[in-house]
Structures are given as C-alpha cells and as structure tokens.
Write a structure and sequence with these properties.
The structure holds 3 protein chains of 3 kinds.
Chain A lengths: L2 H22 L3 H21 L3 H25 L15 H21 L13 H9 L3 H22 L6
Helix pairs in contact in A: 1-2, 2-3
Chain B lengths: L3 H21 L3 H25 L5 H31 L13
Chain C lengths: L1 H8 L2 H19 L4 H26 L3 E3 L4 E3 L1 H20 L13 H20 L3 H19 L6 H32 L4 H9 L4 H22 L7 H8 L2 H26 L16 H20 L5 H21 L3 H32 L10 H4 L1 H15 L5 H15 L3 H26 L14 H13 L7 H10 L8
Antiparallel strand pairs in C: 1-2
Helix pairs in contact in C: 2-3, 2-5, 3-4, 3-5, 4-5, 4-11, 4-14, 5-6, 5-11, 6-7, 6-11, 7-9, 7-10, 9-11, 10-11, 10-13, 11-13, 11-14, 12-13, 12-18, 13-14, 13-17, 14-16, 14-17, 14-19, 16-18, 16-19
Classes of the chains: A mainly alpha, B mainly alpha, C mainly alpha.
C-alpha cells in the first residue's frame, strides 16, 4: 500500500488502540499514559491531513498542558502511600450497547452521505490561520481571552486553600 | 487510497469510545479523559473536512478554538475534582451521593 | 477596518461589560478596603451602561452582520439582549453579600467578575451567527457557570453540584460539537448564513440522515443549556448546591441565552429564505420534535416539583417546567410565538428572582431552605409573605400578574398555529403546577407553627427589594400597550440576507 496509507493505518491504530486502553483499563495511570498516546496519534493524523499548525498546537496544548494537568489530577487525588491507582467500571454491558449503537449510526452517516468534494491541498497553514484569526474570526479570537481569564481566575479561586477576607 | 471516509469512521470510533468511558467510568478524572476523547474526535472531523470537503481553513480554525476551550474546561474541572477529593477523600463519582435525582 | 468600527459601534453593551469586567479585576487586586463596595458599584454601573446601550440598539432597529458574520444584530436580538442584561442587573441589585448567608465571607471581586463574564458571554451567545462563535460563547457561558456553582468551595453540596454540572455539561457540549463538525462538513462553511443557503437549496436524500443525526447532537447542547428533558438531570442538584443568588442568575441567564440561540439557529439556519424566517427547510418535522421535548420538559418538571420540600429544588423543578412553557414560544414558529417568548422571559425574570430572593431571606434569618420551616411566616414576616404570594401567583399564571400575561401570549401563539392538543396538555400542566405553588403559599399563610418565634427583622434595603420585585410583577399590566408595541417591533429576525 502507499506510504500515505501506511502512515494513516499506523496512526489510526495507535489512536484507537490507546483510546481503548483509556476507557477500559483498570489502572488510572495506564489510562493517563494511553491518553498521551492518543493525543500523539491525533497529532500525527493532523500532519497527514496537512494541518501543520494544528498538529503543533495539539502537541503543545493537549500533551504539554492538558495531559500534564490530568496527570497532576491523577496523582493528587490518590493516597500516595498506597499506590492504589485503580479505577472502577460500572455497567459495562449497557454502556457498550449505547456506544456500539452510536458508532453504527455515525459510521452510517459517514459512509452514506455525499460530502462535498472540495479538497484543499496540504500547504503551510500557519500564516493563513493567523490571517483568519485577525480578520474573519477576530471576535472569537478576542473573546477566547475572556474565557481564559475566567477559567484561570475560577480554577485558582476554587483550589485556593485559605480564604483571605 | 485514504479518503474522507477513513477519517470519519475513525472519529466515529473515538466518539463512541469516549461515550463508553463517560457512561461506565466512576473516577472523575477518567470521565474527563473520556470527554477529551470526544472533543478530539470532533476535531479530527473538522480537520478532515477541511482537507477533503470544504476546501477552506474554517475547520482548522474551529479546531484551534476547541483546543482552547478544552484547556479551560479541564482546568476548571480538575480544580473542582481536587476540591472534591479534599472534602471527601475520594475522586469517585458514585460516592458523591448526597445529591439524589 | 471600516467594518470593524461599524461593528464595534453596535457592540457597545458587550464592550461596557468587558470594560467593567476588567475594571473589577483590577479593583479587586489593587484597591484597599473600599474593595467590596467598589467592585459592587463597578458591576452595577457596568450593567446599567450595558442596559442603556442595549436600549439604544433596540430603539435604533439596526440589523445586519457584525464582525465578519460572527454576530448578527437585529431587533429581536436586541430585545433578547435587553432581557439578558436586565436579568444580570436585577439579580445583582436584588442580592448582595449581606443578604445571602451562603455568600458570607466569600470573595466579592471574583463573583462580580464572573457575573459580568456570564452576562457578556450570554450576549455573545444570543447574537452568534457562526458555529465557531456559537460553540465558543456556549462554552464561555458554561464554564463561567461551573465556577459560579462551585463558589462555596468548602461546601460539599456545592462542590458535588459543580462537578456534576461540569461533567454533564462537557459531555453535552462535546456531543454538540460533533454535530457541528458534521454540519461544517456538509455545508463547507462555519457561518449560519452559509448553512442556511445550503439547507434551503434542498438536501439530497443521501444526506437527510446526516442532517437528522447532527441536529439531534446539536440539540444535546441546546437542551443542556435550557435544561430541557432529557438533558435536565443536572438542574436540581446544581440549583440546590449553588449559592442561591447564583441559582437565581442561572435560572434566567443561560436559559434565555440558550433559547435565543436555539431560535436563531433553527430559524436562521434552517429556514427557507423566500418563505420568510418562520418556515423551516426540508420535510424534517422539527416542530414535532420540539413539541415533544417541550411537553416532556414541562410535565417532568411539574410532577417532580410536587413532592419537593427543599425550596431550592422545588424552584429548580419549577424552572425546568417553565423551560417547557418557554419552548412553546419556539414551537409556535411564528411572530406571535417569538413575542410570547420575549414576554415570558421578561416575566419569568421578575417572578423567579423574586421567589429566590424570598428563599434567600428566609435562609438568612432562619437558616433553612426547607418548606417545613415556612409555616407561620405570615405572622412573622408579613411583607415577605405578601411579596412571595405575588411571585407565586405570578408563577402560577393568574391575573393580574405578569405570569398570566406571559402564559396568555404563548398559549395564544400555539393555538393560533392550530396546535390545540399541545395547548391542552400545556394547560393541564399549568394546573398541575398551580398545586405546588399554592402548597407553598398555604404553608406560609395558613399553616400554624413557629409563631412563638420572633418576627423576622428584614433590613430596609431588603424590604425595598421585595417591594420592587413584587410591584414589577403587577405594574407592567398598566403599561401593556407600550410593552405590546415594543414586542411587536422586536419581531424582525435577521435571517442572514
């Protein structure tokens, strides 16, 4: 098969395989590291799709930020002396049915629909995305800063131990 | 030949797995991870459409915003989980049973 | 560049809030001990300024896209924004750190920042006309709410409520995002106008299934914000766990914003241009679906409220039920429906905030949210009981209160569309709801008990607040012509042309 196909299958396998581990593993720390692999897999897929800026952002923010935060969360919410990092699963049967059903429906949507075929040949996107941020998508770009302020302030406030009058 | 459908089925799988985790996991951090799977699956959709279906970068721009939102959400959610743990010594959801439907 | 300045001119309410927000953050960081007063004052001034600008916008009747199509301004949107800002202003004026026992000792600046951020985000959501803006604004509203609900960080109930809220919310909006991604894929654009053009052009049969699926997914996000069935599960717990002033705010603002964007999404994107904004594209029967959701929502809310003894949970379920009634305005798919929605939202604001204020004051003086501690209040707090009776009767929908007029509008809009069975079910629901509102009233007025306890000494400012809100529930009746004229003028929905 072609190089592109090979790379796709490798990354797809990595992504889905690790996603399985995230969802089904009994050990929380395994789930966390599997999530790391998932994020990497997705970043690889982005590169394959010609989204270079996005792949870099995915690595920086998702792996470097969100995952690290999740790891902190895992570590800080367990008794350190007793590394019982197990995570329980309930009602696997009915959950599987729902998830399988959803997968079938969404795959049907994916395969049955006639998607428009306007392809975009891979090209460096960073400058183009930057231009979009400052023109068409200016408002969300600026509004996102309010979101980040609120999240920053909110998270810090919630976690802060001592309250000063 | 890898086409749009490949990516869409992949993301459908990710979405389904995320939902599975959402429904079955008891640990709050694990549920958060499942939600991240869901968000990533939507992002894969967006980028794939950008490449194969729409011919413009709107999908990629959207995906960047999704990442921003995800970061903010995780920060707040983890702050709350941490506080829950401090108050109740467990990050498990079922034990948070004071509030009943 | 010229477009930017033009957009900013129409963006003044939001700008006022934004500047207020930043000033509050700065004031909270640097000011000395005038801090509490200053942050409160800044918040009120900022909200009042935003209200003034929104009024101006509403009167000017501008319509058109803003910020390259990210937002849209039209008279209906301006009217909705007016209600949203009013909701923020009324709540901030009605509650304070002094009259809410739950908020005692907690940080002022952060909460006011959050309130301003919430109103700002709701305004963005109500005007969004691009799915990127929609998603971002929706998440801004949500994340701000999550933080506000968890404000009582030492309190287990509050903490669990906010966790439930986060997880449920993130899941719902995540699903919505997946649906939006499919919409982008189908239409090749993120703008609602572009989406509308695609859908109006006729959906090939092969794509119909995709449109169904993605709409259901998107409804997950809207349903969650509006607390409609089956996305309402978070509501009672969150309303109970959050500090009551926050609950009052959340019962109106995100709900109204969610309804506004649902209205705009369905009628902006799914409408057929030649037939005007009130006719929907395709043979997909959205009306039936919305009707079903509406009926389930009001029924579930009412039935669950019947057995509640915790006032906050009771009002939470009442809120869910009212969301069902509010949806009637959308189901009616007409100008009268939109008018009904506007009037109902405005009425709902004063009824709900009033009820929550009473609950807060009782908690302040009695320390309880339980209905079983309410008997004998007519003796011990006559003004409070009188005000509460106004609010309760308004919630039931009895004349001469605004609640009655609100119901009248939505009912007539629905009946006008020939949906008689639906209206009947709604009427039955209203009757069922009356039961629990009257129950509360009965407990306060007729039930004996607690009379040996001393009278409730309400602060003068609290008395004023109660009086003002109670009057707000009755006085509008005398200005009905004027309100009618305003609502009629606000019905233009800029469908993207």
């Amino acid at each position: 098969m072609s190089g592109e196909a090979l790379v796709f299958w490798v990354f797809a396998g990595l992504t889905l395989g690790s996603a399985f581990v995230v969802v089904l593993s009994r050990t929380l720390i395994y789930s966390a590291f599997a999530l790391l692999v998932t994020f990497f897999g997705v970043a690889g897929l982005y590169v394959l799709l010609g989204a270079d800026f996005l792949a870099a952002t995915q690595l920086l923010v998702y792996v470097g930020g969100i995952l690290v935060l999740l790891l902190f969360g895992v570590m800080l919410t367990h008794r350190i002396y007793d590394l019982d990092l197990r995570s329980e699963t309930t009602q696997l049967g009915s959950g599987l049915i729902v998830a399988a059903g959803l997968f079938v429906v969404l795959t049907a949507v994916a395969l049955k629909t006639e998607w428009p075929g306007l392809a975009r040949m891979p090209a460096p996107t960073t400058a183009a995305i930057g231009r979009l941020f400052l023109r068409e998508y200016l408002l969300p770009f600026e509004a996102a800063s309010v979101l980040l302020l609120v999240a920053l302030m909110g998270a810090a406030m919630i976690v802060r131990r001592r309250r000063s009058a | 030949m890898i086409g749009l459908q490949h990516y869409l089925v992949l993301s459908a799988g990710l979405f389904a797995l995320g939902v599975l985790g959402l429904l079955t996991r008891r640990n709050a951090v694990n549920v958060l991870m499942s939600i991240e799977l869901i968000l990533n699956s939507a992002n894969v959709n967006l980028v794939a459409f950008s490449r194969y279906a729409s011919g413009n970068l709107g999908g990629q721009v959207f995906a960047v915003f999704v990442i921003v939102v995800a970061a903010a959400e995780v920060a707040v959610a983890l702050a709350i989980v941490l506080t829950l743990y401090r108050l109740r010594r467990t990050p498990n959801l079922d034990d948070a049973s004071i509030l009943k439907g | 560049m010229y477009e930017l300045t033009r957009s900013l001119a129409a963006f003044r309410p939001e700008l006022a809030l934004l500047i207020g927000l930043l000033l509050v953050v700065v004031a909270d960081t640097f000011a000395g001990w005038g801090r509490q007063l200053m942050t409160r004052l800044l918040t009120i001034v900022s909200l009042a300024a935003a209200f003034g600008f929104a009024l101006e916008l509403s009167a000017a009747g501008t319509r058109g896209p803003l910020f390259s199509g990210m937002l849209v301004i039209d008279p209906l949107g301006a009217a909705l924004k007016l209600i949203l800002v009013a909701a923020g202003l009324v709540t901030v004026l009605a509650f304070s750190f002094r009259n809410s026992r739950e908020l005692h000792g907690l940080g002022h600046g952060e909460l006011f920042t959050l309130v301003l951020a919430l109103v700002f985000s709701c305004l963005l959501l109500a005007g969004a006309s691009d799915i990127v803006m929609l998603y971002l604004a929706l998440e801004m509203v949500s994340i701000t709410s999550y933080v506000m609900v968890g404000y009582l960080k030492g309190d287990r109930l509050s903490n669990e409520a906010s966790l439930k809220y986060v997880l449920f919310g993130a899941a719902s909006t995540g699903s919505m995002l997946y649906g939006l991604s499919l919409l982008y894929g189908l239409t090749g654009t993120t703008s609602l106008r572009g989406i509308q053009e695609y859908l109006a052009g006729g959906i090939p049969d092969a794509n119909r299934f995709a449109v169904y699926a993605l709409t259901l997914l998107v409804l997950a996000g809207f349903g969650f914000k509006i607390a409609a069935v089956p996305f309402h599960f978070w509501c009672p717990d969150v309303y109970q766990g959050a500090p009551t002033p926050v609950t009052a705010l959340l019962s109106v603002l995100p709900k109204a914003a969610g309804l506004a964007i649902a209205l705009r999404f369905f009628y902006g994107a799914f409408s057929v241009p030649e037939r005007g904004p009130w006719d929907l594209a395709g043979s997909i029967d959205w009306t039936a679906l919305l009707m079903l959701v509406s009926v389930l929502t009001m029924t579930l809310g009412n039935v669950a409220a019947l057995t509640q003894t915790n006032m906050k949970r009771l009002l939470a379920y009442s809120s869910i039920a009212h969301a069902g009634f509010l949806l009637m305005g959308i189901v009616a798919l007409s100008e009268n429906g939109a008018r009904g929605l506007l009037v109902y939202l405005a009425a709902y604001l004063v009824m709900n905030v009033g009820a929550f204020l009473v609950v807060t004051l009782v908690h302040l003086h009695e320390g309880s949210f339980d209905l079983r501690d309410y008997p004998g209040l007519h003796r011990r707090a006559p003004l409070l009981t009188l005000a509460m009776s106004f609010f309760l009767l308004s919630l039931v929908g009895i004349p001469p209160f605004v609640g009655f007029l609100a119901k009248l509008y939505v009912f007539s809009a629905v009946i006008e569309q020939g949906q008689g069975a639906y209206a009947t079910i709604a009427a039955v629901n209203a009757a069922v709801a009356a039961y629990y509102y009257f129950k509360v009233l009965k407990v306060m007025i007729i039930d004996p008990g607690n009379e040996a306890k001393p009278a409730l000494e309400l602060a003068r400012v609290d008395q004023l607040r109660l009086a003002a809100l109670a009057l707000a529930n009755v006085v509008p009746l005398f200005f009905w012509d004027w309100i009618e004229g305003w609502a009629r003028g606000a019905l233009v929905l800029y469908a993207g042309r």
